[in-house]
Specification:
The complex is a heterodimer of chains A (114) and B (132). By secondary structure, chain A is mainly alpha-helical. Chain A is built from four helices and no strands. Chain A has one domain (3-112): Up-down Bundle (3 helical TM bundles of succinate and fumarate reductases). In chain A, 83% of the residues lie in helices and 0% in strands. The chains are: A mainly alpha (114), B mainly alpha (132).
């Protein structure tokens, strides 16, 4: 990998790691509340849709999902190596492709919310 | 005749079982699966929201309410806290030491700052979701 590319991948990994460390526990706790049937008020359709309709809401959701996707992709590439998979180029192409698809889907769905 | 370098025999698939520190490293690495899973779960939720109808969204919420999901989220939350969030805060002073003139800001300040920011940010997310 060239140095220029490495800086981008590393930057996304670091930013994503920091972001997920900070926000994922709260998000998991909210999913736990949903699973137990205690749906928070803010997750009823009117409220969550209202949030996702606003440009600020869309921007927040996009940043969280974009950074999480690329953080996970980069780390899963390393995990594959740790588990003895030595076809790095193939693994890298696969995980980054999934992250790219996730990014496009996120943008598409956010764009569709109106 | 070329020289034959000594190559220490090492398993490519189970090398981390040799040392406690490597095992902890691998346990930390496993949180990347959680990040991937929750990201796509949220994209799935977004797809339900993108239908712009309460029916689709309520169907998504209903699909998430079962004992398996309770166990999964409970486990994931604890695992993520102890193998991603807390270690990430712990290494923050190493990753971005802050220099003030001639002196370094003590590591404990940076770590405590992270915990405070985390509490505030989590409270903000819970407030947004209407939990508090």
């Amino acid at each position: 990998m060239t140095i220029a590319k490495k800086a981008v991948v590393w930057g996304l990994f670091a930013a994503g790691g920091t972001l997920t460390a900070f926000v994922f526990p709260a998000l998991m706790a909210i999913f736990l509340l949903i699973a137990t049937g205690n749906i928070p008020v803010g997750l009823q359709f009117e409220q969550i849709h209202g949030f996702a309709v606003s440009w600020l809401g869309k921007a927040c959701l996009f940043v969280v999902l974009f950074l999480s996707l690329w953080h996970a992709a980069h780390r899963l590439r390393v995990v594959a190596h740790d588990f003895g998979v030595r076809k790095d180029k193939l693994v890298a192409n696969a995980v980054y492709l999934v992250a790219a698809i996730g990014t496009v889907l996120t943008a598409f769905y956010l764009f569709s919310i109106n | 005749m070329s020289r034959q370098p000594y190559i220490r025999p090492m398993s490519k698939t189970t090398w981390y079982m040799r040392h406690g520190r490597y095992k902890v490293y691998m346990l930390r690495e496993m949180t990347s699966f959680l990040v991937g899973f929750y990201t796509f779960l949220m994209i799935f939720a977004l797809s339900a929201l993108a239908a712009n109808s309460p029916d689709q969204w309520n169907a998504f919420l209903a699909s998430q309410q079962n004992p398996f999901m309770v166990a999964l989220h409970g486990f994931a939350l604890l695992y993520f806290l102890f193998f991603q969030t807390f270690p990430w805060f712990k290494l923050a002073p190493k990753a971005m030491p802050i220099q003030l003139g001639e002196k370094q800001l003590p590591d404990s300040f940076i770590v405590i700052g992270h915990y405070l920011a985390w509490v505030v940010l989590s409270a903000f997310i819970f407030w947004l979701a209407g939990v508090i």
